[in-house]
Amino acid sequence: MMIDHYIELLSTLGSIRSRKMFGGHGLYCDGWFIAIVAYDELYLKTDEQTRPLFDQAGCHPFVFEARGKRAEMKYCSVPEEALESPREMRPWAELALAAAMRQPAKKKPRKRS
């Protein structure tokens, strides 16, 4: 299964766990949401600082269609060589973790009275 392979590739970064979502999977490293797997392809989290590095490597963004409109998320594919070993994946995974850690935290849900 592809998800197991992706978890193995990312495992040098920390504790990786998978969660089913929207017909794919979300991947977390030590609680940080760093990747999605959609259509059996791995997409790592990017931001303004890291996206140019993914673009320069020829990676493509995760794009989907919703209500007839094309939407692009802040996740990019990884270079082919990164899919070959955890050592090759490590620098890309570090970029994804850094992007996740820079993202502002969502508001905490209000406690019910």
Please explain how this structure is put together:
By secondary structure, the protein is α+β, with helices and mostly antiparallel strands. It has a single domain, classed as YgaC/TfoX-N like chaperone (Yope Regulator, Chain: A, 2-Layer Sandwich). The protein has a six-stranded antiparallel sheet. The mean pLDDT is 91.
Task: Summarize this entry quickly.
With 113 residues, the protein is an alpha+beta fold. It has helices spanning 2-10, 51-56, 86-102, and strands at 16-21, 24-29, 32-38, 41-45, 61-66, 69-76.
Keywords:
Yope Regulator, Chain: A, alpha+beta, 6-stranded antiparallel beta sheet, globular, 113 residues
CATH class: Alpha Beta
Q: Please state the oligomeric state of the protein chains shown.
A: single chain
And the CATH topology? Yope Regulator, Chain: A
Order of helices and strands: HEEEEHEEH
How many helices in DSSP terms? 3
* Main β-sheet description: 6 strands, antiparallel
> What's the structural domain tally?
1
Strand order of the largest sheet: 1-2-3-4-6-5
Radius of gyration: 14 Å
Task: Report the end-to-end length measured between terminal Cα atoms.
Answer: 44 Å
CATH architectural arrangement:
2-Layer Sandwich
The gross shape turns out to be globular
Average pLDDT number: 91
CATH superfamily: YgaC/TfoX-N like chaperone
Strand content: 25-35%
Number of strands: 6
